């Protein structure tokens, strides 16, 4: 997220407010409602036309509580809670009814995925019943049960009227003091030297201490006036409404036929049939009518033919139904199918709530509450890292990139959500200097923050295409070979995509001491694994620091969280610090040489002493490799002897070539990110976004050993962390699990049961090719405390798609728990 805010002198304002929200759709109304619920009264919502007139008015109004992940379900489940009580509170009818959702599956794979999602619902006490085709027909008599293999029924889901619901939220906000100014268009906005935001409207200038952009499709263009780049692009979204039909009853559940790309809901005696077709239609903003409320676009029956045909297969009566309305309206989408909320990096008191990917009604309630809590408290109060506006890289605002990606993103709503699924569009954006080497070796590439990264390597003459599966994807046999090579000989991985930031300046050490929980005031060449925490002790970054000199540190972080790490660090660099932060990711290619024979290989190419005594674990040296001078870090993310070589990018191909040539006699093999994931899990190394989030503490994550409790000046989050340490036993801990049955595969989100009771879920899981069965990490919760006895004296089971599998639990890794392989 790049910002280059124009700072302009203050103008005379006819109105000054604490919080101004631009946008009178579901995002803006929900936020205003929740801000006033938290006691904020000086809240103003600006809407250029009338409430809901952007995209909210034409929403389908579906209410779904369960999602494929616990984090998304935590946000989505609140919609039914809020909408069910809203009319009684505000006096404004919403049209909300809990007639349930019936999700049908045409294939066994879809039924399995559906059952996995139903398991997630159990964590939240939500009803989700897996039912037979016959039972599905009993609930929805018009469907053809012969074309489905099963279904899920979620009785407390339903539907609502989007216009009435939005108006009801606005009414609730107004009742507690908020102002709703309709027909107030913002034509310009800027930041003043004293930090306020001023907005020029058709009624004059309005000033805001806190500004929120919740403008749907129009957020990107309005944000650009402040130098803020928001990655949004529009797409066309279609539905049709039939003439009245005898088969339609008010109690019909919402029908979701994801294999058929359609959803079908009752609509005043008619059926509304909407589509998330396999490939959407991108919509450039310049193609939208200007200054128009309640936009309707042109019909496109050719594009709608596939989902409509599938709907008629599912409900044969539709073949003879008349069509009363064909609707096509614009919606905004993001490049990763997740909406965005939060404070814009580098722009204090500027927030965004947008990019709801045609699911604003479903997520608007929970997102509005989460963002309101963030604004009032000054920091996020729940895990929103995965929807944080700070997560994007600057290239993702590129209009060509978005135009090519968004049609695929729209289709992902209803496509199978395969583990490790890779996008097909907007690829080749960022390539390692070694890309061609990996391609010649048979790499199957995946994408991470735009980087093309080898995921696995095919055998000679074999296809590199992915064949996805919840049991045994086609790369398993290749990944297994890569893992075996790493454990017995050596592998070479490309970690160039890892984020690299250089922090330097007179206060660099002092600054990092304040931000990091660990002690970074170490000797030059020492590597420090540490975390930056929030005030609650939650983990905001998971990084490795390399002290290059007294006033220089190199920070290494995962590629996918690199932008967010940068935003967190930048946020804390105030004028009081003599510190600069520079992104040097592109300056270095990184080759990770790992395995028992890594020392033998590297010794052939350098005159540096690589012995344990001369080059201990967690240290760094500049050494010669071939003709190049590289930064060699003795580190591992797989639990083996190894070095991560930071190579000047222009010398990367040379270093690769000499390593590869020498490595042949030692059995050196290329390895991809799947192998990295499998082996780091075997060693129980944590991964940010999966095992570590802002609501997990270092103690809960089993990382207390990284904390320096006594360093001078302390660190952000020390008080909360020390308080938790003093109040042991911990009520939540990250635990390792190993299945007794070698057949089922863990990925993530599977339920953890102790003595039959749900106590947590798997945060990350893999098939361990070293151990011969699936393993995983997951947080276990208990009010009595998660102690060693609690772990050892319970019966542990993992629930996968509704089926229970026996498991062993441990606070240590199942592979090399003492780390003996690191020092050989």
Which strand-content bin applies to the residues? 25-35%
Low-confidence stretches: none
Largest sheet: 9 strands, mixed
Number of helices: 19
Quickly name the level 1 CATH class of the domain at 499-587. Alpha Beta
Please describe what this structure looks like:
It comes from Rhizobium giardinii. Its EC number is 1.5.3.19. Belongs to the GcvT family. The chain is an alpha+beta fold. It has a domain of 89 residues: Alpha-Beta Plaits. The protein contains 19 helices and 39 strands. Strands 4, 5, 6, 12, 13, 14, 15, 16 and 17 form a 9-stranded mixed beta sheet that branches. Strands 1, 2, 8, 9, 10, 11, 18 and 19 form an 8-stranded mixed beta sheet that branches. The chain has a 6-stranded mixed beta sheet with strand order 30-31-32-29-23-33. A hairpin with a 2-residue loop joins strand 14 and strand 15. Helix 1 runs parallel beside helix 6, helix 1 crosses helix 9 and helix 3 crosses helix 6. The radius of gyration is 27 Å and the shape is globular. It starts with 14 loop residues before the first strand and ends in a 14-residue tail after the last strand.
């Amino acid at each position: 997220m790049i910002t280059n805010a124009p700072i302009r002198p203050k103008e005379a304002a006819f109105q000054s407010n604490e919080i101004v929200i631009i946008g009178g759709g579901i995002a803006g109304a929900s936020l205003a409602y929740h801000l006033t619920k938290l006691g904020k009264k000086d809240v103003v919502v600006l809407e250029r036309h009338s409430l809901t007139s952007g995209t909210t008015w034409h929403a389908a109004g579906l209410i779904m509580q369960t999602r494929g992940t616990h984090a998304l379900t935590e946000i989505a489940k609140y919609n039914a809670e809020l909408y069910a009580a809203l009319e009684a509170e505000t006096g404004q009818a919403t049209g909300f009814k809990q007639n349930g959702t019936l999700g049908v599956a045409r294939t066994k794979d879809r039924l399995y995925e559906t059952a996995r999602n139903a398991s997630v619902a159990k964590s939240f006490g939500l009803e989700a019943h897996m039912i037979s085709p016959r039972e599905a027909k009993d609930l929805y008599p018009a469907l053809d049960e012969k074309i489905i293999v099963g279904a899920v029924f979620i009785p407390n889901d339903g539907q609502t009227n989007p216009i009435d619901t939005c108006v009801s939220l606005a009414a609730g906000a107004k009742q507690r003091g908020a102002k709703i100014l309709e027909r107030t268009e913002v034509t310009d906005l800027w930041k003043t030297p004293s930090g306020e935001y001023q907005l020029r409207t058709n009624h004059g200038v309005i000033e805001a201490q806190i500004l929120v952009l919740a403008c749907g499709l129009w957020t990107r263009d309005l944000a650009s006036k402040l130098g803020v780049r928001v990655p949004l692009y529009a797409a066309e979204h279609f539905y049709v409404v039939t003439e009245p039909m005898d088969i339609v009853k008010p109690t019909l559940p919402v029908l979701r036929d994801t294999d058929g790309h359609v959803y079908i809901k009752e609509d005043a005696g008619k059926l509304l049939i909407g589509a998330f077709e396999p490939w959407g239609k991108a919509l450039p903003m310049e193609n939208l009518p200007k200054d128009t409320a309640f936009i309707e676009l042109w019909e496109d029956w050719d594009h709608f033919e596939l989902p409509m045909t599938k709907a008629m297969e599912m409900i044969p009566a539709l073949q003879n139904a008349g069509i009363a309305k064909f609707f096509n309206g614009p919606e905004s989408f993001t490049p990763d199918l997740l909406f965005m909320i939060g404070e814009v990096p580098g722009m204090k008191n500027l927030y965004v709530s947008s990019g709801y990917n045609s699911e604003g009604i479903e997520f608007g309630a929970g997102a509005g509450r989460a963002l309101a809590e963030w604004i009032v408290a000054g920091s996020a109060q729940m895990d929103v890292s995965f929807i944080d506006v700070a997560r994007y890289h600057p290239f993702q605002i590129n209009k060509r990139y978005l135009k090519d990606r968004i049609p695929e993103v729209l289709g992902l709503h209803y496509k199978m959500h395969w583990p490790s699924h890779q996008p097909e569009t907007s690829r080749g954006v960022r390539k390692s200097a070694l890309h061609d080497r990996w391609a010649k070796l048979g790499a199957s590439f995946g994408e991470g923050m735009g980087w093309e990264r080898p995921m696995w390597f095919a055998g000679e003459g074999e296809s590199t295409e992915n064949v996805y599966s919840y049991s045994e994807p086609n790369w398993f046999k290749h990944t297994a070979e890569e893992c075996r090579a790493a454990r017995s000989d050596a592998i070479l991985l490309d970690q160039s995509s890892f984020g690299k930031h250089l922090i330097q300046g007179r206060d660099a050490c002092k600054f990092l001491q304040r931000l990091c929980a660990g002690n970074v005031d170490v000797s030059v060449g020492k590597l420090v694994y540490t975390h930056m925490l929030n005030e609650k002790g939650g983990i905001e970054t998971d990084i490795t620091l390399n002290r290059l000199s007294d006033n220089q540190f190199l920070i290494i972080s995962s590629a996918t969280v690199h932008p967010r790490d940068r935003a967190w660090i930048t946020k804390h660099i105030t004028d009081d610090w003599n510190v600069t932060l520079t992104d040097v990711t592109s300056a270095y290619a990184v080759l990770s040489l790992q395995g028992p024979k890594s020392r033998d290989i590297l010794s052939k190419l350098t005159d540096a002493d690589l012995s344990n005594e001369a080059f201990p674990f967690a240290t760094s040296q500049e050494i010669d490799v071939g003709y190049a001078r590289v930064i060699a870090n003795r580190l591992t993310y797989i639990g083996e002897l190894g070095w991560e070589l930071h190579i000047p990018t222009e010398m990367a191909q040379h270093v690769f070539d000499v390593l590869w040539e020498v490595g042949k006699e030692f059995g050196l093999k290329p390895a991809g990110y799947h192998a990295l994931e499998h082996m780091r899990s075997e060693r129980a190394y944590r991964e940010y976004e999966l095992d570590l989030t802002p609501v997990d503490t270092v103690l809960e994550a089993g990382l207390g050993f990284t904390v320096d409790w006594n360093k001078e000046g302390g660190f952000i989050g020390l008080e909360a962390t020390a308080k938790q340490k003093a109040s042991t036993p911990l009520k939540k801990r990250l635990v390792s699990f190993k299945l007794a049955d070698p057949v089922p595969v863990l990925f993530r989100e599977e339920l953890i049961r102790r003595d039959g009771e749900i106590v947590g879920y798997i945060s990350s899981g893999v098939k361990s090719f070293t151990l011969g069965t699936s393993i995983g990490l997951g947080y276990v919760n208990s009010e009595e405390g998660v102690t060693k006895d609690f772990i050892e004296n319970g019966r542990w089971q993992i629930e996968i798609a509704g089926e229970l599998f026996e498991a062993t639990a441990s606070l240590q890794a199942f592979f090399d728990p003492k780390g003996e392989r690191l020092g050989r």
